[in-house]
Amino acid sequence: MNHVKDYRQQRGLSQLKLAQAVGVARQTINLIENGKYNPSLKLCLGIAKALGTDLNSLFWEE
């Protein structure tokens, strides 16, 4: 479970806009949000930066 979708929606971004910001396909963002793809550390950092948060908030369960 991750919180990418929650943060993306809170910031009013579509999957496509987030994907463009981090340089991946929209489908990659969809797979990450649905827990079907484990992104690289580099991609995780890019997503966190694009969403204005940190890795712990996005990817670690509480």
From TrEMBL:
Coiled coil: none annotated. It comes from the Bacteria. Pfam families: HTH_3. GO terms for molecular function: DNA binding. SUPFAM superfamilies: lambda repressor-like DNA-binding domains. Keywords: DNA-binding. InterPro entries: Cro/C1-type_HTH, Lambda_DNA-bd_dom_sf. This is Transcriptional regulator, PBSX family.
